[in-house]
Amino acid sequence: MPCSLCNRATRNFEIIKEREYVQCTGCKAILLSPQHHLSPQAEKYRYILHNNDVNDPGYIHFVNPLVQQIKSDFSLVDKGLDFGCGTGPVIASELEKSGFQLELYDPYFKPNKKVLKGSFDFIICCEVMEHFQNPLKEFKLLRSLLKSSGKLYCKTSVWDEAIDFHNWHYKDDLTHVIFYNKETLNWIKEHLNFSSLEIQEEFIIFCA
């Protein structure tokens, strides 16, 4: 199968519990073979089970480094988008407490496509990019929504060869279909015309 991000050839990587994973020979992304992707109905049901609560102190703590970074980088006049906000848009809720203005979009829970005709100073993509079945399409969309000085903030678990993929908990979520490493993220930066990329321990920043 060709890579769903860069369209290069892939090689067999792992078979775990009858689920087949391949690795791209170009951008090095690890991909779950499409025959193992969930149906939209099953995928939505799994997301409902995540049950993110905007008042959950544990999740608020989990996203706080990203919230603080956005508050440091932008002011209250700047406009944001929480892309893939799910059932509980915790980051948007935390930023709104400080007076920020954000739009929400989620294909299942906030499917207002009018939002995707706007432009934004910053976009949040928290624990979302690993769900992209068509990552090239999604990253092109995100890039097109950013203003010229905008920033895309992503949060995902980045894989590297020091991680034993077979026993890596992150691949066990049945809705996770693509796993990124530094080479993959740099491919996105170079081919989608982001000016810079920061890979930090808690989050990733693509700058327009």
TrEMBL record:
Which InterPro entries does the UniProt record give? SAM-dependent_MTases_sf (IPR029063)
The leader peptide range reads none
The cross-references to Pfam families, in alphabetical order and at most eight, read: Methyltransf_23
An annotated GO BP:
methylation
GO MF terms listed in the record are: methyltransferase activity
Record bears the keyword Glycoprotein: no
Q: Does the keyword Methyltransferase apply?
A: yes
Which keywords annotate this record? Methyltransferase, Transferase
The coiled-coil regions, if any, are none
Annotated protein name in UniProt:
Class I SAM-dependent methyltransferase
Query: Origin organism of this chain?
Result: Christiangramia sediminis
